[in-house]
Amino acid sequence: LNKRTRNGGCYQNEERDTFPNKRVSVLVGSTDPVRGIVSGDVILPCFLRPTTSAVEESVEWQRTDLEPKEVHLYRDRGDDNVLQNPSYSGRTSLFSEELKNGNVSLKLTNLKPSDAGNYTCYLPTLDNQKTTIELLVGGAAPRPWVSIVGTKDKRVVLKCEAEGLVYKPELVLLNSNETILPADEPTESSMNSDGLYTVTSYFTVQKTATNLFICRVQQSEIKHMRETHIHVPDKMFHEEAEEYPLNWKVGIGFLGAVVGAVVGAVVGAVVVFLCMWRKTTRKHHPEEKEINDGYADNRIALLENRNLENSNVPNGVGVSQSGERDC
């Protein structure tokens, strides 16, 4: 800007730099969520662009949903975490060597599920600029497991299962070429009281050149994947895998015949023994037969005598037996 001033009746131009050529840096973060795993480390990005040193600036990382909200504070060329939320104690840091390059990113270690949320990168000494980054924290679940649960029509049924997952997972089975195989039914999914997922799925597979299959679980939200391999023996794909093999059938038939023969022999032996026992008893006690025969003869004679006595009784008169009386 030129300004004319009067000096001794003359005018001269006086230059003033009313709008100095000063570069203004902007705080830049991440528009996409940052993903981390429980017990792992993560970096929340935050930079000054164009590059400007942040060594002399104040840097505050905050979570406005917490009390106190301070996650990490940098002031007067050093960390100042007196007001830091206790849940982050000893787990946060800046990259001190990168501050001169405008890098004010936060490193967060030993992640917990409760660390998930929105973080604000705030520079109060630079026009109160701020940017927000979302952090997603997923469970580092154990590997899924896969097992053989049966056979069906020359094929094998595999069970693939995973548990302890924070974000809703996808469970798939692949062959050795990493081709996804179809499940028998939709994946079974449940959530426990801690909000962790368990997923189970069944797959009926055919024999392949390698018989190698891969059970894989993925948590897309945090880009996390784990897998387990299984090799199915060739014999599991035999035609009669789910039935008794032929040699078993022959063995069962032979066993039945043997059992039948043994039972028949035992019954026959018992019958022979009883017959022999009766013959032996009669041989050693012949008087029993004679007594029985004499008893029968006496009984017949007694009956004949009674009939004769009764024949002499007039008609209409009853014959009473001992202890009985006619009325």
TrEMBL record:
Q: Name one Pfam family in it.
A: C1-set
The segment(s) forming the Ig-like domain are 20-134
Q: Which GO terms describe its cellular component?
A: external side of plasma membrane
Q: What Gene3D superfamilies does the record point to?
A: Immunoglobulins
Q: Which InterPro entries match?
A: Ig-like_dom, Ig-like_dom_sf, Ig-like_fold, Ig_C1-set, Ig_sub, Ig_V-set, IgSF_BTN/MOG
> Could you tell me the superkingdom of the organism this chain comes from?
Eukaryota
State which residue ranges cross the membrane. 252-277
Its keywords, alphabetically, are:
Disulfide bond, Glycoprotein, Immunoglobulin domain, Membrane, Signal, Transmembrane, Transmembrane helix
Protein location? Membrane
A single Gene Ontology biological process assigned to it is: regulation of T cell activation
GO molecular function term, any single one: signaling receptor binding
This protein is called Ig-like domain-containing protein
